[in-house]
Amino acid sequence: MTPVDRARPWLRAHPLALDAALALGVLLCMVLGSFADPHGPNGPTFGTRTPGLRSLVLMTLAAAVLVLRRRRPMAVLACTSALTMVELSLGAPPAPVAMSAVVALYTVAAHTDRPTTYRVGVLTIVVLTGTAMLFGTPPWYSQEHVGIFAWTGMAAAAGDAVRSRRAFVDAIRERAERAEHGREEEARRRVAEERLRIARDLHDVVAHHIALVNVQAGVAAHVMDKRPDQAKEALAHVREASRSALDELRSTVGLLRQSGDPAAPTEPAPGLAVLDDLLGGFRRAGLPVELARIDDSPLPASVDLAAYRVIQEALTNVQKHAGRGAKAEVSVVRVGPNIEITVIDNGTAGGDGNGGGGGHGLLGMRERVTALGGSCTAGPRYGGGFRVQAILPVKAAETGATGEGTT
Hints:
The longest helix has 81 residues, at 143-223. The chain contains twelve helices and seven strands. 63% of the residues lie in helices and 10% in strands.
């Protein structure tokens, strides 16, 4: 990266400093140009004349107003044009105060629309060139007068070209943003449609087979004492219906699984109660992990599982992407109505934002935490490494758990 590339963000954030530097450069060019005599005995010479006090004052004022060229482009153009007209009408030969008007005209053309550029540009060219021809050194068609005409015309054209290119780039960027937004909307729409379809399938499977089970169970209860053979047949139908329901549920839920996912577990859902076993597994795999846990009070099942999964996914990312010699720190802190989970590492590679090449990673963590009303942030740490933090509301989950079944 070149020094100009490194300085460009700072200059964008401090445009006034850039304009001040430009004004200083224009002032130096005008002062140096005022030492040149275009009418020397053997052609243009340098150092054969010196600018007067009036010319120095006009050049200084013209350069000073350029500092405000972006904030008040029209006012700056009017001021620099007036100072140029004063110098052209009184100087013999005049100092190049017109340089400031050229810069101001370029700024107006670059920050306004094309009709305004045409009107203001033509007016500025006519006024400055006409003043030079009327009050300047004869003949009226001398190269100094033609130079004013040419430079002001090129300034207006260059400013208009820059404005057009900027508008073109902005239009392309806006079109790309709209396209990206459209793709995201389409992806969300398809996900919602797929979830709705799966929900309908689950509803149909459960409703149909549970209804059969209910009917057959009622029949079995009714004929159990008088006709045991018919009761056995009804119970066989109940068993067959329940087996079919389980098979269809398994196939429907299987659509949500990734290839290579393990089969459904038979043990209870994990939580922070087995956090030491989880960390021990990572330590045995070669990842040093330190745990800081302030509060070990029991949590609602949904919050407990989400906290465990966040730590598990974050440490998996550390092991995959943080590089050799990385260490991880896990903290579990109860802060008011929330439980705060933080996982940091000092790795050099950092996370890739998705938890691996083709998995869901951090996106899955955010969805899990957001579903409980919490927030999840992840990003590189200052000085190296990666940081994952999840804040889960415990009180809301407890309220929701106690409120179930009361309606």
